[in-house]
Amino acid sequence: MREIFEAELQQIGDDLAEMSRLVESAISRAGTALLTADLQLAQSVIAADHAIDQLERELDERCVLLLAQQQPVATDLRVVVSALRMSSTLERMGDLARHIAQVARGRYPHRAIAPAAEATFAGMHEAATGVAQRTTTLLTTRDLAVASTIEREDDTLDLLHQDTFAALLNETWDGTAQQTIDVTLVARYYERFGDHGVSIARRVVYLVTGDFAEERGVTTP
Amino acid sequence: MREIFEAELQQIGDDLAEMSRLVESAISRAGTALLTADLQLAQSVIAADHAIDQLERELDERCVLLLAQQQPVATDLRVVVSALRMSSTLERMGDLARHIAQVARGRYPHRAIAPAAEATFAGMHEAATGVAQRTTTLLTTRDLAVASTIEREDDTLDLLHQDTFAALLNETWDGTAQQTIDVTLVARYYERFGDHGVSIARRVVYLVTGDFAEERGVTTP
């Protein structure tokens, strides 16, 4: 019985890591598509999102079956419940990558991001890709040092998010209304993406150490 | 054993309804604060959000305990897992109401919403309040007719969301960059609020009928 349970748990861990790899690829390609106005790349991100959604459904079904058949308690139970939450978070991260790709596609053949904000979004692209890569590493290795790196990358995203507002409100900003909308929304997508990465990092820390720092502002706007 | 389980399940249902009532109050007051630049009302929404977060944590803890102690299977198990998901959705709806209140507070003593977009946001306020009220009704009564009403209110929110883009991109739009940002973000908050209401509606329909229409675009941007 225990062996079956361990194997099932391993499979759930592998599925989470696989979802995270797909999210990593999606956010990286979405950011490049956005910065370079690459239509094909944007479309590939949009087309690939269903695979993440599908993986979430399978993983959830597997978790519910595991709860029903193995009736885990204590730590085992928390691992399964956390997996349910993390799969939903990863699915949402995939959606945010898709939203960024949709903005890139919507403005093609132009670049969505006005030149004045390009450097900021290059920074967000780098930080968000870092969050995604480290999320995969954390889910694979459970190395808690990686969790703090995710928190720092998220801090970077928050600062860059503030920078976008500063740029938009500066009197030198001469973007069109469409450019103002795009900067506002895409910066928000990146900022949320970072929050979700932090949410996963804290869940893994909780599972490993029993200390959950949910109160520390994961859900701030 | 079964009696204890039923009582626990009833308590979880009551907690979800209570969370929904708090969300209903939050979104209604946030919208009024936004449209009338009412600082005190905005602050009351922001201050009250922690009660929703607290209720979510208690509810989650109760669900995990129930899974551990009662080891439900089949439908009972799905009810508990759905409650975990719905509490997280309601918590997020509370956050969105708080974000709207934060925009109202940030622009005080001015109104955040430019006059040209006021009518649209009055409509979003009404539709979102409708979604929240009906979510409470649905969670209390399990009356599936209410679920379709939530879907229709969400369709209204989506249309009004599109209207805000049309207004911002119209050549007659003469709002400041701050007003463009606020219209863009608050419209997005309302649109997401509606999506979350639909997500709860579909979960309740699934629990009652066994038919889950997750694929029908809940997570579209």
UniProtKB/TrEMBL annotation, chains A, B:
GO cellular component terms, semicolon-separated: cytoplasm
Keywords, alphabetical: Cytoplasm, Phosphate transport, Transport
Domain PhoU: 16-103, 124-204
Keyword hit for Cytoplasm: yes
InterPro entries (alphabetical): PhoU (IPR028366), PhoU-like_sf (IPR038078), PhoU_dom (IPR026022)
Cell compartment(s), UniProt: Cytoplasm
The keyword rRNA processing belongs to this UniProt entry's keyword annotation: no
Main location: cytoplasm
GO biological process: intracellular phosphate ion homeostasis; negative regulation of phosphate metabolic process; phosphate ion transport
Main function: Plays a role in the regulation of phosphate uptake.
Subunit structure, as described in the record: Homodimer.
Family assignment from sequence similarity: Belongs to the PhoU family.
Record-given protein name: Phosphate-specific transport system accessory protein PhoU
Species annotation: Sanguibacter suaedae
